[in-house]
Write a structure and sequence with these properties.
Helices cover 76% and strands 1% of the residues. It is mostly helical and 508 residues long. The protein has one domain (3-502). Strands 1-2 form a two-stranded antiparallel sheet. α2 (11-30) packs antiparallel against α5 (105-124) and α13 (292-314) packs antiparallel against α14. The longest helix is centred in the middle third of the chain and has 34 residues, at 241-274. The protein is globular and about 70 Å long. The two termini are 31 Å apart. One of its GO terms (biological process) is ATP synthesis coupled electron transport. It is a multi-pass membrane protein. It is found in: Cell membrane; Endomembrane system; Membrane.
Length: 508
């Protein structure tokens, strides 16, 4: 093993870890008696500096292999996801400056950076051991962030629920990984796919199916797919607003990037083995595709359940945080649909990456507005947003743009994200099944417009019970305006983001 190459490949994670130690050193060593606002600002700025250093490191980091086994990839989906994780982490740290939920900002920022390091690992992981280590680093950090508002009973309750569900999902995931290792004799994704196609795992089909189900349970929890979503509404509602924004954006980007990496690794192997063979979805000889047949079926079931339940449950919510949680479950269903009908071309991967990046950006902005209103009114209920247009027209405009983008209204970026994803599904797989599923996704996207408009109705139409102004700090306003501008500009010029994502892939 070449440890110099290992250090180079993990340079972004190393930058975040050094930044976390520096934040703790400065906050606890020099600023313990300073004003809370000063400590929060300094910790956030140092954390953002660490993200910028890690962004530079991503540009020079390369893949890492131990022997012939690739452990960490570089470029492609890994590069896009790592840049997105770091950029979104920096935005959530900027939102921290306007918060007052903790008296320990140094510890909070350090844990955020550790979570981001876990996200970077799983975004590039190509080995089961690396995946599990990265997921646990990310997950343990998220449990702590959820409980960081120590004065809030909801925060503690949601953290306990999150931890219990997380521990159970980790057990399922590890159990599935152990079966995959036992069946294939390797922890490398490419070797596992090869063994499933032509090796001894191909003859152990029942055990292989069990392993895939176990892995789907573990990863389904990470992306809040139905029926493994039960932690999400409570966590989104109870966590501090910046932490909820981080969980809803950064952790989702990293988790879905892991699924993209798994799909890319599998299809790369099958493309090399069976190039020129016509694959007909759900009507193929299973000996050609090995584990892809059940894996695609599992993802399809999770996608349909998440789209239907997430949108229908969101209709009944009176808490905007919980509404955003069920909305995120529905969006996870759309993304899983794209992953279920994946291909070895870059089109599918780029469409999924476009979706998760833009959804993460929009979600941070939505939670930023909710956090400002919640601090001013003391509630995130729908009634708290009554007359927001009169109390703070700028916040109301931000919420209008972001919620319409989440609903997929053109010309905002959310529309193009859905259009690209659904088009990739239809392009990858012809036939009645993908067309029916895309039609179902479009139908429930229309359903989602109703509950987004319920919030906007209170913002713009229904009379306010209190017309006192709601104010936010300039940094928060600047972040929200920046996010809103990005949503509009990327919607009007979708090729900007598409070209940027495509630049991480080698040209044919």
């Amino acid at each position: 093993m070449n440890y110099i190459n290992l250090f180079r490949s993990t340079l972004p994670e190393t930058a975040l870890e050094i930044a976390a130690l520096l934040v703790l050193f400065v906050d606890l060593g020099f600023l313990r008696k300073a004003a809370r606002a000063t400590r929060i600002a300094v910790a956030a700025v140092l954390g953002i500096a660490g993200c910028l250093a890690a962004l530079w490191a991503v540009s020079i980091a390369g893949p890492f292999s131990a022997g012939n086994d690739l452990l960490l990839s570089a470029g492609g989906s890994a590069g896009v996801a790592q840049v997105a994780v770091l950029a979104l982490t920096a935005l959530t740290l900027l939102l921290l400056i306007d918060s007052d939920f903790t008296r320990n900002p140094g510890e909070y920022v350090a844990v955020v950076l550790m979570a981001a390091a876990g996200g970077l690992l799983i975004s590039a992981a190509q080995d089961l051991l690396v995946i599990f280590a990265g997921l646990e680093l990310l997950s343990l950090s998220l449990y702590i962030l959820t409980a960081f508002a120590k004065q809030s009973g909801k925060s503690a309750e949601s953290a306990i629920k999150y931890y219990v569900f997380g521990a159970m999902s980790a057990a399922f995931l590890l159990f599935g990984f152990s079966y995959l290792y036992g069946l294939t004799g390797s922890t490398n994704l490419h070797e596992i796919a090869l063994a499933a196609a032509v090796g001894r795992a191909a003859s152990a089909t029942p055990l292989l199916y069990i392993a895939l189900v176990m892995v789907a349970v573990g990863l389904g929890f990470k992306v809040a797919a139905v029926p493994f979503h039960l932690w999400a509404p409570d966590t989104y509602e109870g966590a501090p607003a910046p932490a909820a924004a981080f969980i809803a954006s950064v952790s989702k980007v990293a988790s879905f990037a892991l699924l993209v990496g798994i799909g890319t690794a599998f299809f790369h192997v099958f493309d090399n083995l069976h190039r020129g063979v016509l694959f007909v979805r759900f009507g193929f000889p299973t000996r050609y595709l090995g584990l892809l047949a059940p894996w695609e079926l599992i993802l399809t079931v999770l996608a349909v359940a998440s789209m239907i339940f997430g949108n229908l449950a969101a209709l009944a919510q009176s808490s905007v945080r919980r509404l955003l949680a069920y909305s995120a479950i529905a969006h996870a269903g759309y993304i899983l649909l794209g992953l279920a009908f994946f291909s070895w071309t870059n089109v599918s991967a780029q469409a999924v990456l476009y979706y998760i990046v833009t959804h993460g950006l929009t979600t941070i902005g939505a939670f930023g507005v909710v956090g400002v209103v919640e601090r001013a009114v003391g509630s995130d209920r729908l009634e708290a947003f009554l007359g927001l247009q009169k109390r703070n027209p700028l916040l109301a405009a931000v919420m209008l743009v972001l919620f319409l983008s989440l609903a997929g209204i053109p010309p905002l970026v959310g529309f193009w994200a859905k259009f690209n994803l659904f088009a990739a599904v239809l392009r990858t797989s012809g036939g009645a099944l993908p067309f029916t599923l895309v039609a179902l996704a479009v139908l429930f996207s229309a359903v989602s417009l109703y509950y987004y408009l319920q919030v906007l109705k209170r913002v713009y139409v229904m009379p306010a019970t209190d017309e006192s102004p709601i104010t936010a700090r300039p940094v928060t306003v600047a972040v929200l305006v920046l996010i809103t501008a990005a949503v509009v500009v990327l919607g009007c010029f979708p090729a900007l983001l598409q070209s940027w994502i495509a630049s991480f892939y080698p040209h044919p």
